[in-house]
Amino acid sequence: MLFGKRERAICRILVVEDEPLVAFDNEYRLADAGYEVVATVDNLVDALRVIETEALDLVLSDVRLSGEGDGIDVARAAAAKGVPVLFVTGNCPEEAQSLAVGCLAKPYTDKELKAALDVLDRKLSGEEVKKVPGGLSLYAKAGAKPD
Fold it and tell me: Which one, of 24, 29, 74, 81, lies nearest residue 48 by Cα?
């Protein structure tokens, strides 16, 4: 594409985070970068409701959540709907590799989050990703949006 921005594959994001400050920061950072935050929730039940009822392009989820269930459960539900997941956590479980498109290590900066989303957007659009920002691990198969 010549001049201008290419169309994003990721526009509508569900944030699943149990730390209020991190959730607030993510909401602000994502909105500031032009993403639509469909909802921000802190538990599995609310995440499942949003996944079932909303059109989503990405779920940004911590692994640890409030109440019953965790981010792995969220990722399973999202995968069943064909919605890719990016885990944001201090310790990404091995199981994440089969459920998510990647994992962004906490703590991360605004710049690192935006760079990670840009790389994921390119990957989900079918582009080859040559450079991955620090703190981001990409996984081969998982979470790719269905055609």
Answer: 74
Q: What is the pLDDT of residue 8?
A: 87
The dihedral region occupied by 77, where left means phi > 0, alpha psi between -120 and 50, and beta the remainder, is alpha
User: What's the pLDDT tens digit per position in 41-85?
Assistant: 999 999 999 999 999 999 999 999 999 999 999 999 999 999 999
**Which residue type, as a one-letter code, is found at position 117?**
L
**How would you class 80 by CB atoms within 10 Å of its CB: exposed for 0-12, middle for 13-18, buried for 19 or more?**
exposed
Q: CATH homologous superfamily for 12-124+134-138? A: Response regulator (3.40.50.2300)
E strand residue ranges, the chain: 12-16, 36-41, 58-61, 85-89, 102-105, 136-138
User: pTM for the whole thing?
Assistant: 0.90
pLDDT tens digits along 73-132: 999 999 999 999 999 998 888 888 889 999 999 999 999 999 999 999 999 988 888 899
